[in-house]
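tool=predict chain=A
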Amino acid sequence: MGRKSRGKLARQRRQLRQIQTVELSTSFSGPLPPPAQLKEYDNVVPGAAERIIALAENQSGHRQALEKQVVSGGVTRERNGQMMGFVVAMTGMLGGFYLIATGFSWIGISTIIANLTAFTTVFVVGRHSQRIERQEKHARFVRRASR
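tool=predict ok
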């Protein structure tokens, strides 16, 4: 290898060393930054780390209170819906029996059958949609876990 080619090769190596850069990035997820960053916040603004932790605790408590309210509201709605469904079903059944007792047998029987069919359909469709919802949630969970 000649002198010129060695000099050219050395120049190329120097250029390559100059071009190389190192990129470093960090990220975190969650309500609090990592301890090292908390310490840096505290160095810049004394007491900042404590305030950040208190903010995260307050936010967590607020979120939990909202979730509790949502769950409680859902239970209340479901209970009220069941009670109203029971009242409607019993009204239909009693109406059908009243029609049978007053001589309108076919209309009374039809009312009872329609009532039973409607509530059976509501029950079956409700169970089916709950099963589909559970399957979709399970599939989303499996997809997230496999990432």
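The CA atoms of residues 15 and 53 lie 48 Å apart. The chain has a mean pLDDT of 86.
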